[in-house]
Amino acid sequence: MSEDQENKESADAYPTEKTQLNTDGDVEKGADVTADHAELDDSKVKFINGGSTPNGGDTVLVVGGKNDQEFAGIGKEELLKYAQDPFWVKVRLALFVLFWLAWFGMLAAAIVIIVLAPKCPPKPNLDWWQTSVAYQIYPRSFMDTDGNGIGDIKGIENKLDYFGKLGVNTLIIGPIYPTENVDFGYDITDHTEINPEMGTMADFDSLLKKAHKKRIKIVLDFIPNHTSDKHKWFLESSMGNSTNKYRDYYVWEKGTASAPPNNWLSKFSKTSAWTKHAKRNEYYYHTFFKEMPELNLRNPDVLKELEDIMAFWLNKGVDGFRIGYASNLVESASFGDEPTNGGSSKKPYDNLDHTMTMNQPESYNLTDRFRAFMDQWYSKDGLDQTRVLLVEAFGDINATNAYMGGEDRNAANLVFNYELFSVDKNCNSRCIAEKVKGSLGSLLPGKWANWMTGNHDSIGRVASRVGVNFVNAMNTLAMTLPGTAITYYGEEIGMNSLDLTFAQTKDKWGKNFGAADYKLVSRDPSRSPMQWTSKMNAGFTNATSWLPLTSTFNEFNVMADEAVGSTHKFTKVYAELTKLRKEPSMLWGQFFDAVLNDNIFSYVRKAEGHPSFLVAINFGIKPSSDDYTSAVKNLVPKEAEVVFNSYNFEHDELAVGEKVKMDNILLKPGEAVIFKYPWQQ
């Protein structure tokens, strides 16, 4: 039997039971609904028996129905008919008009917002030396790597990561040239070579390359005022040969048979600034030691030699120069006597008014010339980068600031500001504020300030002058005032001044003044070796250092300061300050006085459209509670956030991150805190 016949017999044996709904919605057995609903059935799929036949018969699936139709969509003609219908044409036109009205409305609104909204002033176009944190190194005392007890170039290179941690991005490096060590580097015998005690030219090239890779600038000392008496120029000049090219390279005068040409005095001795040369039978001039004769900077050949020296280092890629003693570059051509000032200083040089030997018009002209010469390198290497010119000058503050030029002169970028060098324990907050405001007020329009707390010539370090508890306060001051911050090595860790006996003194200036007065002038106290660790020789050298270490190097060194549980946290404070200096208000913001009394010096740094900062420091001898909201109307809000403190606090109310009321802030001596708040007009 075939399969079809078998299925048919099965179906006949068990006929399908038909049902229909009665009027109550119940199903009545036996009713045949198939025929009754055939006309209404247009289903695509129908189930017959549902697979539940008594004998387990198969389910029959019927697909389709008699009302099936294929949907072909709207044809092109019909679509065009709709598209041309007047109703839909009007709808499309209305939507088109509404779209463009909305678009132009939004454009107009955007223009109104741009025009009427408050505007932030444009960011000033600051140069790299203006935004930089500079670090001045006396290389002889920084780090010795070859075991001769003298700091060297490799030692600086080895500490590049240290500068990175501090946030330093410019190094001002003292003399690295061959020298007779009469003035430990400043009596130069060759301006385009490296002092063998400090390494080789290859060492310098390596330092320059690695520093630049870490985005650290290198600025070198440049000494155009004088040379060593062992320099080949002077050896030739002293021959006195009338046909000698070098005859007029130095300042020579005949004088008389028994006396020098005038009353000019040497700064570094108690005697005349003139020394008679036996071979030439004339006097040569020297502001400093007799072994450091002054160059004749009115001689065009000398100027050409100096420019060649600058070109040598600029072509290597150095980022600028610091000119030492620019105020003494040129002397009066009249060679007249200098008037006495009626003083009675133990330093005879200070008892004269240096009208003939300092800050002559030609000295300013030379600074302008050097700047113009250096500007030729702005685009030479494709970097479009300023080569910075820093100047060391002395005298009246207006006379020294003039080395930066004026509206009609483009001269030095910065003149080192020594106003904070005289801050000591007798200088309270009012005293410091007077120095700061005097410095800022003396700047010519468009000129840039800078702040230093010490250098290689200062008589004593900050920690010894003001006390260890005020080191962070002084660094806070220098880092947050308008202008560039320059730190002398060791000041970031609170190094003390070196205390030496006369017998231990190395500085010839001190030796020249004798056992009774050597401490008045000796620069040794600020030149002791950098203190890296508390181990032997403070980690500076594995030999005997050229100068002794301070007696406190075990406590005040980099390793101890960075240790967990450190008391002072000098380097942590320093690094936090360099980070804060990147804030717009700190870089170019205005300076406003806030609370000022015998103890507190505070001020606000404020750039329009950027967060403002209140810097408050206690430089006094007593705690002080003050209301900073009442200092100047609308200058300080009722509440502000602490973003920095000097870590010498005994309380947590002024911890970083705390929001505090500004109407009653207590600061103890040596404490510094910086508050941040939104800008307001």
Q: Structural class of the helix and strand makeup?
A: alpha/beta
Biggest sheet strand order reads 13-12-11-7-6-5-15-14
Q: Which consecutive residue ranges, at least 5 long each, have pLDDT under 50?
A: 1-45, 47-57
Please summarize the sheet with the most strands: 8 strands, parallel
Name given to the CATH architecture of the largest domain: Alpha-Beta Barrel
- Give the CATH H-level superfamily of the largest domain: Glycosidases
> How many β strands by DSSP?
23
Explain what you see.
This protein is an alpha/beta fold and 681 residues long. It folds into four domains: 3-63, no CATH class; 76-114; 128-233 and 292-496, Glycosidases (TIM Barrel, Alpha-Beta Barrel); 583-677, Immunoglobulin-like. Helices cover 28% and strands 15% of the residues. Strand 9 (274-277) and strand 10 form a beta hairpin.
What's the helix and strand layout?
Elements: H1 3-13, E1 19-21, E2 27-29, H2 33-36, E3 45-48, E4 60-63, H3 76-83, H4 86-116, H5 128-131, E5 133-137, H6 153-158, H7 160-166, E6 170-173, H8 201-213, E7 217-222, H9 232-237, E8 252-253, E9 274-277, E10 282-285, H10 300-316, E11 320-323, H11 361-375, E12 388-391, H12 397-401, E13 414-415, H13 429-442, E14 450-452, H14 462-466, H15 471-480, E15 484-488, H16 508-512, H17 514-521, H18 558-562, H19 570-580, H20 584-588, E16 590-596, E17 600-606, E18 612-618, E19 624-626, E20 639-645, E21 659-661, E22 665-667, E23 672-677
Parallel strand pairs: 5-6, 5-15, 6-7, 7-11, 11-12, 12-13, 14-15
Antiparallel strand pairs: 1-2, 3-4, 8-10, 9-10, 16-17, 17-18, 18-23, 19-22, 20-21, 20-23
Helix pairs in contact: 15-19
